[in-house]
Design a protein that fits this description.
The chain is mainly alpha-helical. It is built from 21 helices and two strands. It is 77% helix and 1% strand.
């Protein structure tokens, strides 16, 4: 849209802000439900199984459709598909806000995932096409800082809106979608489309493979990785014994994705328009950048899944206070965005990724160091601020690295692949981190209660009560003088879980940093 040396017009920057806000909406909806699920359960009288599907269905569908929507973006134009995604997201948000039952709310969340899957890769394609040179790095800085900030703002917004009604957590999306659509139509030109076809068999295989993979990674701790630990219930159907549905899903995912890859390679060799052009992986910056993206996803946002539990149940924060405690992460992310503008001329996108990963690892190491049963708010804020600065650099510029050498006509496919790598890395990271966190919580609590002289049956019962409730019973235990020592032991064990989890995530980000040594600088910035 402009040459390497031209300064982008103001309208493109305004369009970028609109696109970034669209991405913020879909990221917020990944995290906001964690905070509002309790009032949803009370209001609709749903079961724990339904509550879990309300939380996870959106993420599973979202991940499953990213490759398909990336291809559709190349064929029909990124702006058109972005706008359609907004319409779908807004309409299904209204359906969720008005849902009279758990079943309809779950259906709305599934459909929301379709809208989200249209928005994320097309937003990347729009940014990549609209900006070049130094401006592209700055644009991705704004886009990336929005993701980091939105992940932190989700719990805050959910905690605040829950004081009015959980329905507003979805209803607030509707006016936001309308404003974003108007801004995109005004400030961003229509994207070029191309003549071609969609490999629908490949689309089914990719959606099946990615959907099953996301389900397995997200639900492994709940249903069991190898054998059934909790029954899977869908309507009248119940999977109660034998191999875990997670194991079956993961095996099915690998089979479907293997067939998908083989089919795409065959179509590519025959020039028959594959859904995923495997030849993109011959581009060094794209191939190795996606490996970095996957590892970054492993270590980056898993901690957000457990921090609110620790804050609310161990540190006795309200939902709103827990959300406020995450605001320094958002502030740090925006600070990085501003700093990136001045650094773009002197520090490459790959260099900024390395700076970001180092700061992320440092912030998480600080969080692990500060984690205690009585951690001060300022220590948490300082650690999350440093972490947020790192997120602002790394999340934005790793995308710039991955897409820099991708041909314009394949920008949608490239964006879909990079988005899928990010989402699957995040799903795997959350699976690993929650497993480590709850394992550390259970082991630590059992050890402390045994040392306090409780009998083995008492220890087992209390351990099950605390871990099965994700710590939510700790305030009730603390309110009774007779069980106060148990509550204190649980708080200490939960702090130990945060400590180990923080160090683990920091280690994964250091691994991602080391992996960047194998990435060659892109031929263009």
């Amino acid at each position: 849209m402009q040459t390497q040396t031209e300064t982008p017009p103001l309208r493109l920057w305004l369009g970028l802000i609109a696109v970034s806000l669209g991405v913020a909406l879909i990221v917020v909806d990944l995290t906001i439900v964690n905070v509002i699920i309790a009032p949803i359960v009370d209001d609709l009288g749903i079961t724990s199984i339904q509550a879990q599907w309300i939380q996870e269905s959106y993420a599973i569908v979202f991940a499953a459709l990213l490759l398909l929507t990336g291809r559709l973006s190349d064929l029909y134009g990124a702006r058109k598909l972005f706008l359609i995604g907004l319409v779908v997201f807004g309409a299904t948000s209204l359906l969720a806000a008005l849902a009279p039952s758990g079943g309809l709310l779950i259906a709305a969340r599934f459909l929301q995932g379709i809208g989200g899957a249209m928005i994320l890769p097309t937003s990347l394609a729009l940014v990549n096409a609209a900006f070049t040179g130094k401006a592209r790095g700055q644009a991705f800085a704004i886009w990336g800082s929005t993701i980091g900030a939105a992940a932190a703002v989700g719990p805050l917004l959910g905690g605040w809106l829950a004081d009015f009604s959980w329905r507003w957590a979805f209803g607030v999306n509707i006016p936001a979608v309308a404003l974003i659509m108007v801004a995109v139509l005004i400030y961003l030109p229509a994207s070029p489309s191309s003549v071609g076809r969609v490999d629908w068999l490949g689309a089914v295989l990719s959606a099946l493979g990615l959907g099953l993979l996301a389900f397995g990674l997200i639900e492994g701790r709940h249903y069991g990785w190898l054998t059934v630990t909790e029954p899977l219930e869908i309507g009248e159907f119940a999977w109660r014994s034998g191999p875990s549905p997670v194991l079956v899903a993961l095996v099915g995912a690998l089979a479907a994705l293997a067939v998908f890859w083989r089919r795409q390679a065959m179509l590519g060799r025959a020039d028959r328009e594959p859904l995923l052009d495997v030849r993109l992986f011959s581009i060094d910056s794209f191939r190795k950048g996606n490996v970095v993206t996957l590892i970054v996803g492993l270590g980056e946002f898993g901690i957000i899944a457990v921090l609110p539990l620790w804050m609310q149940f161990a540190l006795d924060y309200s939902a709103l206070q827990a959300g406020l405690a995450l605001v320094p992460l958002a502030i740090g992310s925006f600070v990085a965005s501003g700093a990136s503008f001045s650094l773009t001329a002197s520090v490459s996108a790959l260099g900024q990724v390395r700076i970001g990963l180092l700061l992320e690892a440092l912030g998480l190491a600080m969080l692990g160091l500060f984690a205690a049963a009585d951690s001060s708010w300022w220590s948490i804020a300082l650690a999350l601020f440093v972490y947020g600065i790192g997120v602002g650099f790394a999340t934005a510029q790793v995308t710039n690295v991955v897409l820099a050498d991708v041909p314009g006509e394949s920008a949608g496919q490239g964006s879909g692949i990079q988005s899928a790598a990010r989402e699957l890395g995040s799903a795997l990271g959350i699976a690993v981190l929650t497993t480590v966190f709850f394992s550390t919580l259970g082991t630590g609590l059992r050890d402390r209660l045994t040392d306090a002289g409780l009998s083995e049956p008492e220890v087992a019962a209390l351990d099950a009560t605390v871990t099965d409730s994700a710590g939510s019973v700790i305030p009730a235990l603390a309110a009774d003088p007779a069980s106060l020592p148990v509550a204190e032991a649980a708080r200490e064990a939960m702090a130990a879980g945060i400590e180990i989890s923080s160090y683990l995530c920091a280690g994964l980000l250091v691994l991602a940093l080391a992996t960047t040594a194998f990435v060659k600088p892109a031929r263009k910035v």
